[in-house]
Amino acid sequence: MASRSITVASPSENVIVAMQTFAGEQRGSFERLALQNGARIRMTLPSGPVNLNVYPSKGGVTKVVFDRPDAPEADAIALLLGGAPSVPGSKKAPVTAVEPVLADDGCWIGSDESGKGDYFGPLVVAAVALTAENWRVLEELGVRDSKALTDAKATALAAEIRGGFPNEVIVIMPTRYNELWDKMGSVNRVLAWAHARAIENVSERAPAAVAAVADQFGDESLIRDALFRKGRELRLVQMPRAERDPAVAAASILARAEFLRRLDQLGAKAGVRLPKGASSQVDAVARTLIASRGREALGEFAKLHFKNTMRVR
Predict the structure, then answer these.
(1) Domain residue extents for the chain
(2) Fold for domain 5-85?
(3) Which of 39, 74, 86, 303 is 20 to 30 A from 310 in CA distance terms?
(4) Entry pTM
């Protein structure tokens, strides 16, 4: 959870521009209002609204005060800005630095996904293999949890990761996703299947890997049970906020960049920009698609088990 207030080592105008850019890339709204000694910011992101105040401080730093620090959207902004708590005893802001969670392993794999909470577009799962010798290259590049990065930064970093480290990206487009969901009856089972395939494929290119790290979701046995024999030779570690591991952070960036690319392709095919998330804005676009292409075409662009499908019928 984000702190009530954070201090950012950057001038207030730079902080405001960064948030405005972030809102635009998230295809959300951004409003700046005058405030005594500062600025009032109102944003509506695909996942929900976030309101905050920005105050310039001495030394070129900025204080950011959230209305609702417990909201996920506040976490996203705190990660973006990389701020530190400015109230003694308050909860820490999300950590943006990466550090291997399996310090004693010489080679390991991290996996993560993108698109799980998005009505439109695919589900993408990526895996990246690192070693004790090369993981700091990612740290120097600025790799961290993709939620702390702008779309443009994630896309640029993804090119560096693809070219420098063993990796695999599994893309499940909406039509195939809907088939898998009907067959498996659970998002977590679809996720586990995709994570297992990505880990398996990377392990073939990184035979020295002895472990795999993934974010925890659902029953911990799901990924383990989905692995084939080769993957079962790996020690599987699942934990909350696994993105602090550099391999998982790198995988999150690859997954997000590919999700964005495929979402844009689907939007071009649909003839309308497909928004991220599952908000009322998404419902409006879904209704437009139904009007232009028919209800049966929705499954080509969207994950049909979302509540959005019922809302637009």
Answers:
(1) 5-85, 107-258, 264-311
(2) TATA-Binding Protein (3.30.310)
(3) 74
(4) 0.73
Closest CA to 213 of 247, 253, 165: 247
Six token digits for residue 85:
């708590």
Task: Give the type of residue at 229.
Answer: R
- Rounded to whole angstroms, the Cα distance separating 125 from 112 reads 6
> Dihedral angle at the C-alpha atoms of 302, 306, 307, 308, nearest 10 degrees?
-20
CA distances from 34 to 31, 61, 164 (A): 10, 19, 46
Task: For residue 19, give Cα distances in angstroms to 25, 169, 280.
Answer: 10, 29, 22
190-227 residue pLDDT tens: 999 999 999 999 999 999 999 999 988 777 788 888 88
The CATH classification number of 107-258 equals: 3.30.420.10
Q: What are the structure tokens assigned to 123, written together?
A: 């589900």
Q: Coil, strand or helix: which one is 56?
A: strand
Query: How far lies 298's CA from each of 115, 120, 160, 302, in Å?
Result: 17, 9, 35, 6
Name the strands in the sheet holding 84-85, side by side, starting at the edge strand that comes first in the sequence: 29-35, 38-45, 48-56, 62-66, 5-8, 84-85
CA dist 84 and 79 (Å) reads 10
Q: pLDDT tens across 131-148, in order?
A: 999 999 998 888 987 877
d(CA 207, CA 230): 10
